[in-house]
């Protein structure tokens, strides 16, 4: 992707400045892992069962571990390598939890982790079209991230989104004993599952609020999780919707005392157990206050 510098009315093409070492890419990501991918850095160069993992991260929102591998040049083995690492993780859960607890000085339990959301990310300056197609299954937990460096130390990072991903990888994995555990444990949640069995009123209400949220800004990603539907901007949840039988619950990802809510519609849930992110929750049964609620949600967009 060409980048340009605007000098008055004249555009000048910025020259790409390729990375010389994979370690440069790795250091850049690890030093900025929260900003780039919304992850906690657990361990750099994590070795397990004679396999060396470049970067081990943890997603505090999906509660899943993320293995990150870096390639300075195109590599044809991302699909097989990704599945191998997923199998390795699922077969050695205790080791990953121990590594997290030792490095983060926390007490993470096995039940605190949603292993169905485990995933592997590959980072490289470019991928082949075949590689992009190979990971374009709706439930394949492998991500592709392109990174390029340009003169002036400008960095371009492009997560490759799945396009029209409707096919499932599971029938393929189930035929291989090697990947049986992946097919049993990895799960891609959908909006359809959250809306299944709900009344027409709730489905319509969800669609209205979903579309209103998407209109708040560009590049908002809808990411269904196990217990709610997350809305992400810059790889961070800014609000979540929990679909219930007779209502919706919208969670606004802001800390207590930060939300400007003149109508006091949002409830403080900072001391109450809840599924969504943030300290504010709004229970919704109609679209009467939709516009005002969107003004609250917008405050959480960074």
TrEMBL record:
Organism in which the protein naturally occurs: Bacteroides nordii CL02T12C05
Domain of life the protein comes from: Bacteria
GO MF annotations in UniProt: nucleic acid binding
Domain DUF5655: 192-300
Pfam families recorded: DUF5655
Protein name: DUF5655 domain-containing protein
């Amino acid at each position: 992707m060409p980048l340009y510098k605007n000098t008055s009315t004249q555009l000048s093409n910025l020259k790409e400045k390729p990375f010389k070492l994979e370690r440069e890419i790795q250091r850049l990501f690890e030093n900025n892992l929260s900003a780039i991918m919304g992850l906690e850095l657990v361990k750099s160069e994590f070795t397990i069962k004679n396999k060396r993992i470049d970067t081990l991260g943890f997603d505090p929102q999906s509660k899943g571990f993320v293995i990150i591998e870096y390639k300075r040049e195109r590599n044809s083995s991302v699909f097989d390598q990704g599945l191998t690492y997923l199998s390795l993780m699922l077969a050695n859960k205790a080791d990953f939890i121990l590594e997290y607890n030792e490095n983060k000085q926390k007490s993470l339990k096995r039940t605190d982790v949603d292993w169905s959301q485990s995933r592997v990310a590959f980072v490289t300056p470019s991928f082949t079209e075949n590689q992009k197609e190979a990971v374009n299954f709706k439930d394949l937990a492998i991500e592709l991230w392109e990174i390029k460096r340009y003169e002036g130390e400008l960095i371009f990072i492009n997560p490759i989104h799945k396009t029209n991903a409707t096919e499932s990888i599971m029938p393929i994995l189930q035929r291989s004993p090697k990947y049986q555990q992946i097919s049993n444990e990895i799960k891609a949640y959908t909006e359809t599952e959250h809306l299944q069995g709900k009344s027409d009123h709730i489905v319509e209400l969800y669609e209205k609020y979903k579309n209103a949220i998407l209109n708040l800004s560009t590049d908002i990603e809808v990411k269904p999780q196990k217990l709610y539907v997350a809305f992400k901007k810059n790889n961070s949840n800014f609000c979540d919707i929990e679909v219930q039988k007779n209502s919706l619950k919208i969670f606004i990802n802001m800390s207590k005392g930060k939300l400007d809510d003149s109508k006091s519609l949002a409830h403080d849930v900072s001391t109450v157990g809840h599924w969504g992110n943030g300290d504010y929750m709004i229970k919704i049964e109609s679209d009467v206050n939709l516009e005002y609620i969107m003004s609250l949600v917008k405050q959480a967009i960074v």
